[in-house]
Amino acid sequence: MTFWGLEIKPGKPTFVETDERPLVVKQAAMASTAAKLEGTCTLEVAVGDGKKFTLCRLAGGRSEQWPLDMVFTPDEKVSFTVTGPCPVHLIGFLDQYEEDDDMDDDDDDEDEDEDERPMRGRIGVANGKRSAADDDDDDDDLI
After folding, report:
1. C-alpha distances in angstroms, 91 versus 5, 7, 128, 130?
2. Domain count, the chain
3. Backbone angles phi, psi at 125, to 5 degrees
4. Is residue 103 part of a domain?
5. 118 lies in a domain?
């Protein structure tokens, strides 16, 4: 993962290129210089055909930052626009290359196999005291 950050100034669309890696946008925040401004700032995203979608509305003193979890693939044409008086900072990261993800998945599968071993044994303790049934060799006590 590589840190990614961008400042979006009001009124101008800002286009993003992801350098052949998926972009994960995690948070939008008002720039620190804008926190005292009156009014709200609306952050919008346009992907592909240019149709805009609102991601969040930020307001000084009330909601100055907003969590996001947006993933954009390298082949998508993405732009962000802010409407209102304040610049907005976006932060996130450039994700790992897909080849690295496949190798990590193999390691995870091995760990899961080890965790899935069945547990065997007797359970017969209640309130910290052993019952007489615990001493029986009957299979009825197996759970």
Report:
1. 4, 9, 53, 57
2. 1
3. -105, 125
4. no
5. no
Q: Mind listing the pLDDT tens digit for each residue in 19-73?
A: 789 999 999 999 987 667 778 999 999 998 889 999 999 998 888 999 999 999 9
Q: Which residues of 85-95 are buried (b: 16+ CB within 10 A; e: fewer)?
A: ebbbbbebbbb
pLDDT at position 84 over 70: yes
What are the angstrom distances between the C-alpha of 140 and each of 19, 118, 124, 126, 143?
A: 63, 19, 11, 16, 8
Domain span including residue 33: 2-98
Instruction: Give CA–CA dist 110/50, Å, rounded.
Output: 44
Whether the predicted pLDDT of 125 surpasses 50 = no
Model confidence at 115, pLDDT cuts 50, 70, 90, reads: low
Instruction: Please give the pLDDT value at position 122.
Output: 46
Residues 6+ apart with CB under 8 A from 14: 6, 8, 79, 80, 81
